[in-house]
Amino acid sequence: MNKYEIQGLVGEGAFGIVYKAKNKETGEAVAIKKFKEEDDDDVIRKNTLREVKMLRSLKQENIVTLIEAFKKKQRYYLVFEYLEKNLLEILEERPNGLESENVKKYIYQLLLAIEFCHRNNIIHRDIKPENLLINPKNDDLRLCDFGFARTITQKQS
Question: Which of 19, 53, 60, 153 makes a 20 to 30 Å CA pair with 117?
Answer without folding.
Answer: 19
